[in-house]
Write a structure and sequence with these properties.
Chain lengths: 311, 300
């Protein structure tokens, strides 16, 4: 008996020593540093949140077909003046309209960079748009009326443009804000629209219509238009490309996969609990969500009337 | 250590917890009969001489009885020290509180309240005896998750003949309910204690019958009295993501399936911690079959 008691005392001392040793080795997570109070705690690791957020963003964008309709209308106007044997003359003004009717491309996300801190997760996702094709309509309108000399007269030419777009690099930037909603932890995206700057690479024969247009005029006009480099200006305008803004409304708030439950079934008895959130805190390694719990109701009480002797 | 316990400990290294007491075999179940009523004091000497015969032990005043409170405390301390040594090693390797796993910690009060919701549980434990569990006390200290269930056992033919019953066990087999995603645990019984027989003139024979029956059946007869444990936290099996239609970008609705399993359980500082490992095969377009989701792995 005495030996047993001595052994017990020895074990108690060893337990105390080990507890102290363990306490010193525990990580901040295990010590609940910066975790909220609460009878129940859920600690979702930053790595998991990052994985979920990353997949939620990149998954839907993986090889998504981007089809843009009635994308943009770009217009450029210019007055062309030229020195002729009659002196400096205004030859006319032209208006070039590029109506980008459709862009079809494939969007591919790259590896996102996520920064975990504060009450948010910042995201910077490089995105590339590949294999693009553009359907556009070019309208060249030459207005020679009301101008002195009437050298070139009026003319209008409309031309369909089929071109490819070279790969476009862009970035999806924004953040996911973490907030508690009742029993769940929600990550809410606050993402800026993606701005894509498309270039157009039309086939060389695209410009034939300009040459034909110029050559169809009289010699004086042709010389003047060539001197004014109308063709180059049109090409420059097309080469500027166009910008498209891709909205971010396809990203929706998401609930993280661990949540409190206010009802659990135990052997046919449904126990209800009032869950009172006690706080959310975000550390470098975890999102902590705490709650206190109180019995709310007993929905299907069974076996609550004991028949045996009371204690 | 018995072979059964060694198996339990191997399981515990993965996801379970060590039991408070070794799984008792029918022959060594913890039996402690204490007679309290004055009319039977004269029989105490005889009773004390019989009990060791039943339990196969020598007199208490000579050596520490294997089922005595002192022996029970010794066992618990030995287990705590052994578990703490393992925990110190794991903590040293940074593996105790897995940084990549969801940590769910329920306080002793929460688990006690949840277990209490299933009480009282009243069942016949043999043709002659019935028992009821009224109260649960849990403890999550020093890497040991222990559960004490208190109740009463009585003769069905004469409910006035009864004894207090204490069941001792540990939290075991923590996993995730496949249907609801709720975290659930099972209490494994390690031993029992019958106290304070109260029956006019019948104590000895009655208690002897009860102890013999429990000794023969071990803890099997008492298992129906053990409540289930549901921790009010759920693990989702996936995240649904709405798509977008009608804009310049058409994104189909999708689903991110998640596969969750309890990696390990840590009873520490008054909380029962379940570490949940979550994996995903990646986002996929929603279909009816996809919403069937990946199965949730069960782990011990």
């Amino acid at each position: 008996m005495a030996a047993t008691k001595a052994r017990i005392e020895g074990l108690k001392a060893e337990r105390a020593r080990l507890q102290e040793q363990l306490g010193a080795l525990l990580t901040d997570d295990a010590k609940l540093i910066d975790a909220p109070n609460g009878a129940i705690l859920i600690g979702v690791p930053a790595s998991l949140v990052e994985a979920i957020v990353s997949e939620a963003v990149t998954g839907p964008l993986r090889n998504v077909r981007l089809t843009l309709k009635d994308v943009v209308k770009v217009e450029r106007t210019d007055i062309i003046r030229a020195k002729t044997f009659l002196g400096m003359m205004t030859l006319g003004r032209y208006a070039l309209t590029i109506n980008v009717q459709e862009v079809a491309a494939v969007m591919k996300p790259r590896a996102p960079k996520l920064t975990f801190g504060g009450n948010r997760i910042a995201i910077d996702l490089p995105v590339s748009v590949e294999s693009g094709a553009v359907k556009a309509n070019l309208v060249f309108k030459w207005d020679g009326r009301k101008l002195a000399g009437v050298v070139c007269g009026d003319l209008t030419s409309e031309h369909d443009l089929r071109a490819t777009v070279p790969p476009v690099a862009a970035r999806l930037r924004g953040r996911f804000e973490v907030e508690a909603r009742g029993e769940k932890l929600i990550v809410k995206p606050v993402i800026a629209p993606i701005d894509l700057a498309f270039k157009i690479e039309p086939p060389p024969q695209t410009w034939d219509f300009i040459d034909e247009l110029i050559e169809s005029k009289n010699a004086v006009c042709e010389a003047a238009l060539r001197k004014a480099a109308v063709g180059r200006k049109v090409k420059d305008l097309v080469a500027r490309g166009f910008k498209v803004r891709i909205p971010s409304n396809w990203l929706h708030p998401m609930a993280l996969p661990a949540s409190f439950r206010d009802t659990v079934d135990v052997k046919g008895t449904s126990a209800g609990f009032a869950i009172t959130p006690s706080g959310v805190s975000i550390t470098k390694t975890r999102i902590w969500y705490g709650a206190n719990l109180a019995l709310r109701r007993q929905i299907k009480p069974v076996n609550k009337s004991p028949s045996g002797p009371a204690r | 250590m018995s072979g059964e316990m060694q198996t339990a400990r191997r399981g515990a290294q993965k996801a379970g917890v060590e039991a408070l007491h070794e799984r008792a075999s029918p022959g060594n179940a913890m039996i402690w009969v204490r007679f309290m009523r004055p009319p039977i004091l004269l029989r105490i000497v005889f009773a004390l001489s019989i009990v060791p015969l039943i339990t196969g032990c020598r007199k208490r005043d000579e050596v520490v009885q294997p089922d005595s409170p002192l022996a029970s405390e010794l066992k618990l301390l030995e287990r705590q020290v052994a578990s703490l040594k393992e925990a110190v090693q794991e903590a040293g390797r940074g593996e105790l509180f897995s940084p990549g796993a969801i940590a769910i910690g329920a306080s002793e009060e929460v688990v006690q309240a949840v277990v209490g919701q299933a009480l009282p549980i009243e069942r016949p434990i043999s043709p002659d005896f019935a028992a009821r569990i009224d109260r649960a006390i849990v403890s999550f200290r020093s890497m040991q998750g222990s559960v004490k269930l208190e109740g009463r056992v009585w003769a069905i033919a004469d409910p006035a003949t009864y004894a207090d019953l204490i069941l001792l066990g540990g939290i075991h087999e923590v996993d995730i309910d496949r249907d609801t995603g709720v975290l659930q645990a099972r209490i494994a019984l390690d031993g029992f204690d019958v106290q304070r027989a109260a029956a006019a003139g019948m104590e000895f024979e009655w208690t002897k019958d009860l102890v013999r029956m429990l000794g023969d059946q071990g803890l099997v007869a008492l298992r129906a009295l053990v409540p289930e444990v549901r921790i009010p936290v759920g693990i989702e099996r996936g995240i649904d993501m709405a798509g977008a239609e009608g804009g310049v970008l058409s994104i189909p609705p999708g689903h991110l399936p998640l596969e969750a399993a309890v990696q390990r359980v840590i009873p520490l500082s008054g909380r029962l911690w379940a570490m949940i490992e979550v994996k995903s095969a990646g986002w996929r377009k929603s279909t009816d079959s996809a919403r069937g989701l990946a199965p949730v792995a069960k782990s011990r």
